Amino acid sequence: MQNFKYQIFTSVIEEQIKSGVLTSGDRLPSVREIKEKYQLSITSVQNGYDYLVMKGWVENRPRSGFFVTIKTSENIPEDLPKLSSTVRNLEFDKKVKLTSKSNKSFEQISFNTAAPTDLLVPQKLILRKMQEVIRKKGSSILRYYPVNGSEILRNKIALRATKFGCKINAEHLIITDGALQALYIALASVAQSGDVIAVESPCVFSVLEVISNLKLKIIEVPVHYKTGFDIDFFKDILTENNIRAVVVTPNFHNPTGILMSDEAKKEIASIAKNNKIPIIENDIYGDLYFDGERPSTICNFDTEGWVMTYSSFSKTLAPGIRLGWLNAGRFFEQAERIKFSLGRSVAPIFQELMIQLLDENSYDRHLRFFRKQLEIQCVELLNALPEYCYFHRPHGGYSIWGRLPKEVNMPDFYTFCESQKIAFTPGDTFSYTDAYSHHFRIIFADKITSESIVRLKIIGEKVQSILDENL
Fold first, then answer.
1. Torsions phi, psi of 220, nearest 5?
2. Helices (H), 176-316
3. Cis (ω within 30 of 0) for the bond into 394?
4. Among 26, 214, 301, 339, whose CB has the most other CB atoms within 10 angstroms?
């Protein structure tokens, strides 16, 4: 599987900068010195330094070499929308129309589809392994598999989770037809029509749609740029409402991209235990971290089975691989019955494919390349976006959450974007309030081209002209 050769030295330099060994202004080794030390080609070394320059860690001074440049702190806004603790009955018609419009099909540069595109899908690997599965398994993949999925696959998923400190009982795992089915099963296992669910706000619209279809009510819990999920707000609503469950995405939250701290994850797990409230944890982006180690989950800190974690391989491998999983914990029996009612078995060929990819470590080798490509595209996109607007810098996942000044007429903004054949997802689709009318989500899972950069800059110039007119 393809990897970036320059990572052998760029990772060392990045770590030295983060730890303070290298400080702003320090001169870095020359291209030739790096070449000789790490036995790399001149091209690989140059690509590595270009990568560090792009990320903002390093600057290239002509005729002098490469020097460390310490980035200034992000100016993270504090004045986020205030949400009430009102229980809401969900009416999804308005949101369906908005999301359908955002997925309108025409020749455009799409920044609104949260799925890997052909650029990132390892097509040759997947097709080759599928052929091997068919030859090896023959007609057995045409039969029903167990309702909760292949025992071998469940064991491999549980074993892999232990690598980042998450203890999952394979007997409590259910293989699902993607992440949304896992969410549906989890919610239906712990709540009935009319019950109140706490959800993060903003919240990805597909989650809101599942909640709506189950005829549940919600209270939106704000997600702050600095701290993420507002735990104090969550504590307050627990004293005033009979909350049946909470749905939360701690790792690279969609749409904001925020990563919750381990301290916050531990506190949420403690609240769930003390109040006997199920946590439904979406870990679909947990494998897509850019730096360091794979982040922990809330499940890591769960001691009594109150956390139901779900994920999927659709976001990390290919959107057509409809295979997810749910760690149902103490709610396994209810979840298994619901899974049976939704369809006996997930496609055996997908289960056997994942068994082979996990067994050979092909999946993790793919992820190393996948994560680095996502990071590069994220940085390229952020560098092209206007500095006078706020865009949250993620450290994993797919999403950049943007906010435009209040002087910008958003319907006019989206109309202009459409004229430039650029598609974003409106912030209104991520809440049942109007709190995010000046926000929008940008997805960087597709190839960033010179053409897309030009069009983004044209849009930025348009917004600047609007702001100048309002001075």
1. -90, 130
2. 179-190, 205-213, 231-240, 262-275
3. no
4. 339
